[in-house]
Amino acid sequence: MNRLSFLTIAQTDGAQTFDLKTNNSFSHHQLQIEVSAQPSVGTMAIAIKTPGASVFTVIDSAIDLTALTATNGKIIDIEASVEAIKITPTGLDAGKTFNAYLVSK
């Protein structure tokens, strides 16, 4: 099992990439997104990179961050062999942040 996280990330920090090159034997990934407070706007895209690929492939481009609160996050299950998972926030309220946790096994 492998655990990674990004904490207190703002819109201005841009895309964040979980690097799984050394642990790409895992094919089940659970991604949890939490927000500091419920945003009035904002979405998140998730993209994966297959081992040996040169580009990321978007698997979900419209995760609605406004549906999340400080006490209710979102879990996304990804069933794929990957060397990286990239999350990209778009339009998240200024002053709001998010945490992202990834568990792979």
Which secondary structure elements does this structure contain, and how are they paired or packed?
Layout: E1 2-10, E2 16-19, E3 28-35, E4 43-49, E5 57-64, E6 74-79, E7 84-90, E8 97-104
Antiparallel strand pairs: 1-8, 2-7, 3-6, 3-8, 4-5, 4-7
Highlighted features:
105 residues; mainly beta; Jelly Rolls; 4-stranded antiparallel sheet; 0% helix; globular
Could you walk me through the main structural features you see in this protein, from its secondary elements to its overall organization?
The protein has strands at residues 2-10, 16-19, 28-35, 43-49, 57-64, 74-79, 84-90, 97-104. Strands 1-8-3-6 form a four-stranded antiparallel beta sheet, with no helix packed on it. A four-stranded antiparallel beta sheet has the order 2-7-4-5, with no helix packed on it. It is mostly beta strands and 105 residues long. Strand 4 (43-49) and strand 5 form a beta hairpin. It has one domain: Jelly Rolls (Sandwich).
Helical/strand content category? mainly beta
What percentage of amino acids are in beta strands? over 45%
Identify the CATH class.
Mainly Beta
CATH topology call: Jelly Rolls
What's the helical proportion of residues? Answer: under 10%
- CATH architectural grouping: Sandwich
Element-level helix/strand string: EEEEEEEE
How many structural domains are formed by the residues? 1
Rg, please? Answer: 13 Å
- The pLDDT mean sits at 95
Number of strands: 8
Taking the sheet with the most strands, its summary is: 4 strands, antiparallel
The neighbouring-strand order within the major sheet is 1-8-3-6
Shape assignment? globular
Low-confidence stretches: none
- Count of helical regions: 0
